[in-house]
Design goal:
Layout lengths: L1 E5 L11 H15 L3 E7 L13 E10 L2 E12 L2 E7 L14 H18 L6 E5 L6 H7 L12 E5 L7 E2 L1 H8 L11 E2 L2 E3 H8 L2 E4 L2 H6 L10 H5 L5 E3 L27 H14 L7 E5 L8 H14 L2 E5 L4 H13 L4 E4 L4 H10 L2 E4 L9 H7 L3 E5 L2 H6 L7 E3 L4 H14 L3 H12 L5 H15 L4
Parallel strand pairs: 1-2, 1-6, 2-5, 6-7, 7-11, 11-12, 13-14, 13-16, 14-15, 16-17, 17-18
Antiparallel strand pairs: 3-4, 4-5, 8-10, 9-10
Helix pairs in contact: 1-16, 2-4, 3-5, 8-11, 9-10, 9-14
Length: 468
Amino acid sequence: MRVIHASAEVAPFSKTGGLGDVVGALPAAQAAYGHEVLVVSPWYPELGGVTPVKPMWIGDIDVPFAGGLEPVGVGTLERDGVLYAFVGHADYSRPDPYGYPDDVRRFARFCRAVPPVAARLGFVPDLVHAHDWHAGLLPVLLERGWHLPAGFPGRPSVATVHNVQFQGVAPLAHLLHWARLPLELVGSHLEHEDRGNMLRAAVGFADLVTTVSPSYAVELTEPGYGFGLDTTFRALGRRLAGILNGLDVRVWDPARDPHLEATYDAADTSGKERCRSALLEELGLDDGGPLLGVVSRLADQKGIDLLLEALPALLEQGWRLALLGRGDAKLEAAARDAATAAPEQVAVTLAHDEPLAHRVYAGSDALAVPSRFEPCGLSQMIAQRYGTLPLVRATGGLRDTVEHERDGFVFEEASAEELALAAGNARGMWGTQAWRSMQQRAMAHDRSWRASARDYLERYREAIGEAP
């Protein structure tokens, strides 16, 4: 099978969160099963971050956009059996991948570029997999778009919703103009509440829709979680499936992690204590109690405000806190103030720091994920692999991956009080044989992409119309 993945980010070349991790690992897992996979993503500055890569320059191609044809550059590289194509344009040369007022226009251009970029490389797919709203116009273009390369019109598509909160909304007339789509699409799934909506377009026009955990697939159909699209998801019926994300177990492996003070595994966890001591020293924290790690985008969705509200109670219980992440300015300021008030108990690093993230996962005793909603979540699964017990709210993929007092701790209500009660329960078990047994169960999970990649391939066959 020949598959195109289209995504705004792909680790290790670009990443702001879980989307990059997923698109960085799933295509390689599919290639390992013998399939041909092309990943198309924007060409941002300094691809690869601390270990930059430079794609091989292929040249410029013309892309239908707005009133005519506009050139974009194309560069490629291969890794782990996957071909990567990067779309170059001034739109993608900014410091951050997104977060700009013209993001919808920028990614409408990206959607329009995917088919001609693939055609330039001689890659005509059996199926196109569009990830989140940034690639949301692709299912529409394949079904109703003009100016497509040979082999692309009518090609089956799968859309994956990684986070329904972000939908890519702009005036409908602008979207139709930018993507050169017919006026007959007024009133179609491309339109929602008198606006153009790229995520709803993907959900409505794709042959199949997936999301990143079974529980989140159910939540999307509920008014409290669907962010205005719950009726659209309910109408999908069996066309909606939840497939749990996996981990890139080559990157997240405490037995081989180059960022750690000492490596370890489930058979011998002695290295974890060395990682803990090294992390406390690195962050300037005392060793007066268990260490609670947080590796997260600082946002209300992630429940960081609940964590900060519960922090006095957590410190009274004896916890130390190591928080790593960036996000909302008010939450960043509140976290900074908490560290200033208790520098030996609270350490806050406001940055995207991948090596430090590895050290927090390994050196912490528990990891807090108090999300209001969480489509899948990777941090709790990474923590389990590193023998760090997750403390999570029962929502989305957190509910699907953590079993209370077996491989972590789960609380139901999104409140500081519930979080503090669960943390107190965990504090009481810290250092006991029950805690060590939970660590062993957590580390024994197979969180690789193997099973999930097979599930995706089965869904692809449904979209194409093949028998399993």
